[in-house]
Design goal:
- The structure holds 3 protein chains of 3 kinds.
- By secondary structure, chain A is of the alpha/beta class.
- Chain A contains 9 helices and 10 strands.
- Chain A has a 6-stranded mixed β-sheet, sandwiched between helices. Chain A has a 4-stranded antiparallel β-sheet with strand order 2-1-4-5, covered by helices on one side.
- In chain A, helix 3 packs parallel to helix 5 and helix 5 packs parallel to helix 6.
- The longest helix of chain A has 16 residues.
- Chain B has a two-stranded antiparallel ribbon with strand order 1-2.
- By secondary structure, chain B is an all-alpha fold.
- By secondary structure, chain C is mainly α.
- Chain C has one domain.
- Chain C has a two-stranded antiparallel sheet.
- Chain C is globular.
- Chain C starts with 5 loop residues before the first helix and ends in a 12-residue tail after the last helix.
- The C terminus of chain C is likely disordered.
- Classes of the chains: A alpha/beta, B mainly alpha, C mainly alpha.
- At the B-C interface, helix 5, helix 11 and helix 13 of B face helix 4 and helix 11 of C.
Chain lengths: 244, 330, 294
């Protein structure tokens, strides 16, 4: 029995096959990256795992429990949180209120929710901006807020959907640091990314999707050398620079 | 330490100010003639109805164009129980609220279960209100061609009828003040924040553990319950219930116009808006005669004006300035 | 509920189709506005009512034949549409949808009640001798004004269809309704598109008003019943879907007429609302399908 299993998931939209017979496993405490060209089905996968879509076939199993078809809020309660590729902040609420809403997932008292929210904001570096209105934030801070909100729900698994896209190198480094801090707390992370540098440095294992099918799975080094992956996605042999 | 943007001193000022206002409100009617008390009472009533609407519209973000459905159900329930079964109107008030609650749950279940949002939800609510109006017309107009009259029982608390307007004023004041307190209580806590989350982005809310369906239903049910009781008050005040004024588009628009003018999603907004509306109604009635449709024309023009020039309403606009909210956020 | 005989049913079918043509015309206008601008035009009914009154007054004051008055009602309501678009609609193009709906609701309330004030709630009818005729088509009696209305409605809808399909501006309108940003990117003048689309929409409503004036009671609230029917048609046909609105109009006209044959007056209205809610709940993309901003 695994920690988080995706079992033969198939999903079609109209005539288009978004995911076909996709299976993989995630062990507790891992950081797994999911890469693939646009349209490969990555966000669809997240939407299925978090209950926004129902798969046509297949199951998602978390800690031995079949969570397929549960509503998103139920899945969040079970311990799987996510960010959205196009950020969805609560625009007219403050940064603090945004995160507090996530905190209420586990606690009911306002005092506890407030404390939890402030702690999370501290962790991701948004404490100073806690009273700012979310719609005023820059892209980088908004992505950070997405992260903070998901974190406040006290998940065991965090699904990050292109949380680095649109960021400059400085902002990217900040988020990478936050993700590392989160991982060190023991939270399992699945991340979808296009920014290769990020995936290669953060992920312990990578799954490659192409037109909804898993074409490769392995360590970053293995993926970089896999000819199927190179042909479909990377384009060229990719060198991993820097240390883990 | 509690995070508020007001420190302690302004808090004290607010309490003193509030107490002064409360005293003023309590002694006010004894200095005014019947007509002015009537105007203020109606202003308060529409403030109350606006606040009730605002719970669903301004806080949970679901704009209903058919709140007349709940208003009318309340008015008819208590009145019919009174006329046909001799049920005391105070008890009838409770049953009205209950009727509103059940209707709200029914309509809410249908609408939210099938994902109606935004203008489609608004139109569905309008349709429901119209359906109730047609039903009322079908069932009532033969027996009560001019509407249902509540027989004049005199001047007693028990009968929920008073010769002077002053008791009505106090009752309305209590209802409105009570609702204000309820809103303040809800606003800062989990429920209030969950409502706002749903308003801002219900997908994100759902992903963060908010049972969106349940909370929308709660907002609807509560809003319906409160609105229905307002309907009963109206019936006991005018002692007549007829389908156009109970279930018509006019009342649906009047209910939502207050919050819109004063500021959707604020607490002061609906009350201020309610008074503005009542004031305008009275002025047009006096200037342009007894013809009743004129105030609807003014409502229409006001609606257009507010939407174009001040969609945040009066208080909303102030909030924008004070909190330095980004108007051009992404 | 009474079970009518075959003759009555046949009569209902014919009348329903004839009226359906008018519904199609109104709905085509409404769906065009929604498709291009994503605006639900609540004021559509009151605009139709204005068309009715233009025709009425032109006949009563100047003796103008109602069908000639089309030359007046169509351009003037097109102009009204342009004015509304310029001053009232375009400021709220970026506003939340329920606000846009509130705006058009406000406009409709204003127009309707202004009409009530100026023209009184009295029901008026056009007494036109040559239109009082009817003829037999087999077992079915058909009144002349209804047939003329049907024919004109079809012709006008056809003209709109032709315009959308064959002219550059029409194609621009269609492009903008499919993909607004893409249309901008290829240089289509969105502002012009919005003006024209809204104008055509209101012109359709006005024309429909003219066409029904000869056989309908002209009164300030006449538009209210039509606008709800138009909403039902548009939602049924798929919002923004021209063909859907056109066919939907005929279907709804038919259903309404058959319904009236079986059930008493008030119920008919009630049923329309029920259908409206049911379609919104269960099939928001309509019977013919199309995008719905849900």
């Amino acid at each position: 029995m695994g920690f988080l299993e995706v079992d033969n998931i198939t999903k079609t939209f109209g005539g288009l096959v978004a995911l076909k017979d996709l299976s993989f496993e995630v062990k507790e405490g891992e950081i797994v990256g999911i890469i693939g060209p646009n349209g490969a089905g990555k966000t669809t996968l997240f939407n299925i795992m978090t209950g926004f879509y129902r798969p046509d076939q297949g199951k998602v199993i978390f800690r031995g429990e079949n969570i397929t078809g549960l509503r998103p809020y139920q899945i969040c309660k079970k311990g799987i949180a996510r960010t959205f590729q196009l950020t969805k902040p609560f625009a007219n609420l403050s940064v603090l209120e945004n995160v507090k809403i996530g905190a209420y997932n586990r606690v009911s008292s306002d005092k506890e929710a407030q404390e939890e929210a402030l702690a999370v904001l501290e962790l991701v570096g948004l404490y100073e901006r806690r009273n700012e209105i979310a719609s005023c934030l820059s892209v980088g801070h908004r992505k950070n807020l997405e992260l903070a909100r998901a974190l406040a729900t006290k998940p065991q698994v965090l699904l990050l959907d292109e949380v680095m896209s649109g960021l400059n190198p400085k902002e990217t480094n900040e988020i990478i640091m936050s993700v590392r801090k989160i991982h060190m707390k023991g939270i399992t992370i699945l991340l979808v990314e296009h920014v290769m540098r990020v995936i290669m440095t953060l992920a312990q294992r990578i799954i490659v999707l192409h037109f909804g099918i898993k074409i490769a799975e392995g360590t970053p080094k293995e993926i970089c050398e896999d000819p199927k992956v190179i042909e479909a996605y990377l384009g060229d042999r990719y060198e991993i620079a820097g240390s883990e | 330490m509690e995070e508020t943007w007001e420190g302690k001193k302004p808090g004290l000022k607010k309490t003193v100010f509030g107490a002064l206002i409360a005293i003023a409100l309590i002694v006010l009617p004894h200095f005014l003639g019947d007509y002015l008390i009537h105007v203020i009472t109606m202003g308060l009533l529409f403030g109350y109805l606006g606040l009730a609407w605002n719970l669903l519209g301004g806080y949970a973000g679901q704009f209903s164009f058919g709140h007349a459905a709940f208003f009318g159900i309340g008015a008819y329930t208590s009145t019919l129980l009174q006329i046909h079964h001799g049920v005391n109107p105070w008890l009838g008030l409770f049953f009205s609220g209950l009727a509103g609650l059940l209707l709200g749950l029914f309509i809410g279940f249908l609408c939210f279960r099938y994902g109606l949002k935004g203008p489609y939800f608004a139109l569905a609510m309008l349709a429901f209100a119209e359906m109730l109006r047609l039903l009322a017309t079908q069932w009532m107009s033969l027996r009560y061609p001019l509407g249902i009259s509540i027989p004049l029982k005199g001047d007693s608390f028990a009968d929920f009828q008073f010769r002077s307007k002053i008791p009505y004023y106090y009752l309305c004041l209590i209802l409105t003040a009570g609702l204000v307190y309820l809103m303040r209580f809800i606003e800062r806590r989990k429920t209030g924040l969950y409502f706002k989350a749903i308003r801002e982005n219900d997908d994100a809310a759902e992903a963060m553990g908010v049972d969106v369906f349940r909370y929308k239903l709660i907002a609807m049910a509560l809003s319906a319950f409160l609105t229905a009781m307002g309907g009963t008050f109206y019936a006991q005040y005018y002692l007549i219930v007829e389908e156009e004024s109970a279930f018509g588009t006019g009342i649906s628009v009047a209910i939502l116009l207050g919050p819109l003018v004063g500021g959707v999603g604020t607490i002061g907004g609906p009350i201020l808006g309610g008074f503005v509306l009542e004031f305008l109604s009275e002025v047009t009635r006096n200037l342009l005669g007894a013809y009743s449709g004129v105030h609807l024309m003014i409502y229409g023009a006001l609606l257009v004006f507010v939407i174009i020039f001040m969609p945040n309403g009066i208080f909303g606009g102030i909030k924008v300035l004070v909190k330095k909210v980004c108007k051009y956020g992404g | 509920m009474t079970i009518p005989g075959a003759g009555v049913v046949l009569q209902s079918i014919v009348n329903g189709l004839l009226m359906g043509g008018v519904y199609s015309l109104i709905s085509v206008g409404l769906t065009l506005i929604f498709g291009v601008m994503k605006i639900i035009n609540f004021a559509h009914g009151s605009i139709m009512m204005l068309g009715m009154y233009i025709t009425y007054w032109l006949y009563v004051l100047l003796g103008v034949d109602p069908y000639l008055s089309l030359f007046m009602s169509i351009p003037s309501l097109f102009l009204v549409g342009l004015i509304l678009q310029k001053f009232l609609i375009s400021p709220v193009m970026g506003a939340p949808e329920h606000n846009q709906l509130l705006l058009t609701l406000g406009i409709s309330l204003f127009i309707e009640n202004l009409a009530l004030l100026v023209w009184t709630p009295n029901f008026r009818s056009l007494e036109i001798p040559y239109l009082k005729k009817a003829f037999l088509l087999g077992p079915v009696m058909v009144t002349v004004p209804k047939v003329i209305a049907f024919v004109f409605a079809l012709v006008l809808s056809g003209i709109v269809y032709f315009f959308l399909k064959k002219t550059d501006l029409g194609r621009g309108i269609r492009a903008a309704s499919e993909e607004r940003e893409g249309a901008m990117a290829v240089g289509i003048n969105l502002k012009k598109v919005f003006y024209v689309a809204f104008g055509i929409g209101t012109a359709c409503a006005g024309a429909a008003g003219t066409l029904v004036a000869p056989f309908f009671y002209v009164n300030p609230q006449a538009g209210a019943t039509f606008v709800i029917t138009a909403f039902v048609v548009v939602v049924l046909g798929g919002m923004g879907n021209f063909m859907g609105a056109f066919l939907g109009g005929l279907i709804v006209g038919l259903a309404e007429s058959l319904g009236a044959a079986f059930m008493p007056g008030q119920i008919k209205q009630f049923i329309i609302y029920v259908i409206f809610v049911l379609v919104l709940l269960f099939k928001p993309e309509g019977l013919f399908g199309r995008n719905v901003g849900r």
